[in-house]
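W.,

You were right to be curious about this one. When I first looked at the sequence I had no strong expectations either way, so I just let the prediction run and decided to look at it fresh. Below is the sequence, 222 residues in total, followed by the output.
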Amino acid sequence: MKLLMALALSTTSCNCMSKMRPDRRMLVRSLAVSAIGAPLVSPAVAGEPARPVKPEDTFYQSEDKSFDFIVPKGWSITEAGFMRQGEDPRRFFPVHLFKVTASDSSSHVEVTVDLGYGTSLRDLGTPEVAVQRLLPFLPGPPAQVKSVERVQGAVKGSSFLLVRTEDGRALKVAVIQKRLFAMSSSGPSAEAVLETFQAWPINIFCQSQSNSGGRITPGTCY
């Protein structure tokens, strides 16, 4: 009889503790609310767009998911990408790993991804040295540099070098996994696109296939 009573008490205690233990989803939701009841603003997550994509926007992501950007209504993107048809963005390989362009009637952006660089912006040298290496990625006439600054990306820890010219053009650059990612922009509505440009590290299997210039096996890049 004592043994049965002990077992009953043990079971009751376990059930009570189980009921008292908060559900993980409830705990996450509670942590996402501040002390005054207002939702906390979370930083962007790697791989997500830099901002919410509106129904009229176009979200472009490279086939290997190493870079992406958003263009507003009225813009067109020439090249194919992840789940997207178009011109081959690898048509200049091996000179360029990727070349992607987008434009509207008055503005233009161009993304170039090249191999053979370091692992971070520091490998480009000082800002003065870096600019001289980067100006060839800016289409158009020779540029007079107005400013060079390091800016933070949407994801914590990510950063880009932002170069602006006297004639209003701009170049946004990241260096990741020995790749250089550069978006050039020109025109009155290009700034909004430039702000959404992001670059990401990818897994080693995806990187190997992508760097070879060939087709990427579905499911390799995630």
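Here's what jumped out at me. The CA atoms of residues 52 and 70 lie 9 Å apart. And, maybe more interesting for your project: The longest helix spans residues 2-20.

Coffee later to discuss?

I.
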